[in-house]
Here is the input.
Amino acid sequence: MQTNIHNSKIAILGSGGREHALAWKLAKTLGQESVFTLPGNGGIPNSHPMDIGNFDAIKAFCETHQIDYIFVGPEVPLAEGIVDFFNKTSIRALGPTKAAAQLEGSKVFSKQFMQKHGVSTASFQAFNDIEDALDLVHQMDGDLVIKYDGLAAGKGVYVCDNVQEALDALEEMQQQYGASCPFLVEDKIVGDEISIIGFTDGNAIKLLLPSQDHKQLNDGDTGPNTGGMGVMCPVPFWNEALAATIDEKIVQPTLRGIQAEKMDYKGVIYFGIMIGTNGPELLEYNVRFGDPETEVLLPSLKTDLAVVIEACLDGELASIDLEFESGYFVDVVQVSGGYPKSYKKGYEIKGLNQVQDAIVFHAGTKIENGKVLTNGGRVLNVVAQGTSLATAIDKAYNECAKVSFQDNFYRKDIGQRVYKVVSKNS
Ligand code: GLY
Here is the structure.
C-alpha cells in the first residue's frame, strides 16, 4: 500500500546545518513530532544518536518509530548504497542508487558521463598512475586542476598555477592514496562559481534558486578552503539568458544522460558550475544538497518540501511548479577559532535567544546541562532575508553579532564580492 507523506514520519540522516534546514522545512508541513533527525545536533528538535553508516540500525530505528520515509543528507551513505538497501524494504528513501551516486563518488565516472552525453565541461585526461601524468603536467606548465577520483571530503581537488604546485599535488595525492590511484588532470577554468541545485525523478529536473558558496576561510576569498563560510541566493548576476544556457548545455544533457544510462535517480542533483570565458561549464556533480547552500535554499522555497519529495519518489516531479520567496537570502557561518585545522569544543554559545530577524541553523552544537555548547568546527548558520542583497547582508551581520562563544570567527564579506561587482556595473 502506498503511503501518503503528510500522514507519515520521516527520518533525515546527517548532523549539520543542512540537516537542520531540512528538519525545519519539513516540520512546517509534517509537524515537528513527525520529523526525526539521525543523529542531528544540539539545535535540531527530535535528534537521535545514530551511526548513519549502519543501515540495519537505521532500519531498526525506523521500524520502532514507524518511519516510512528517509531523506539522506550527506554523500557517503548514498555512495555506499543506502537507497538500494531501503529499496528492498517498505521504507521509501529519497536519493540516487549506488550506481547513480557514482556521479559524485567517482570523478572519472562523472567526467566520462559528461563527455559521453555532451555536458559542457573542461577537457580532461584520466590516469591510474602518477608517473603517467608527468609529461602532461609539464606540457601544460602546471596550469591545471588535479582531482582524485574518489570521495575525499572536499580535499581531493588541487587547483595549480605552475609545475611545482602540480608536482606537489601529485606527491600529496601519492602519500594519501598510493602511486597507483585513479585521478584526473583537467583544464583550469577561471570565473564565477555558482551552485545550481534541484530535484530529479529521472523524468524531469526542477531547479531551486541559484546560490553562491564562499569556500575560503578569510575575507576577500583568501586562506584555506573550508566546508563553506557563507552563501547567498539568488546570485545577483542571474538572468534569463544565463539560465537558458545552463539549461541547454548542462541540465538537459544531464537528464538525457541519466535516462540513456537507465540510472535509478530520484533525489537531489547539484551542479557545481564555473562561469568562465567560454560561458558556464560543469565542474562537478553532487548527488545531495550542498552545505551551506541548503540553509538559504530551503528558506527561499515556498513550495512544501514534503510534496516535492513524494513527487520525486512517485516519478511525478513534472507536475510540480516550484515557488520561491522574493528578495535575497544570506547565510553567515560562525566557526570555532582554528577551523579548518584544529579547534577546541565545549564553549557555551550565548545570545541565541536575542536573534529576532534571522533563522539560526545549528551545525556543530550539543546541549549539556541545559546549555548550548560548541561541538564542531562549523558551529552555526545565521540566515537572513532582505528585499535587496544589501539589506539581507546587513540583517545577517546584525543578528550574527548577537551570538557569541569563545574564539568564534566569521567572514565579514559574505555576499559582497558579487554585490560590489554589480554596483560597479549598474
Ligand atoms: N557547498 C559545497 C558542497 O556542499 O559540496
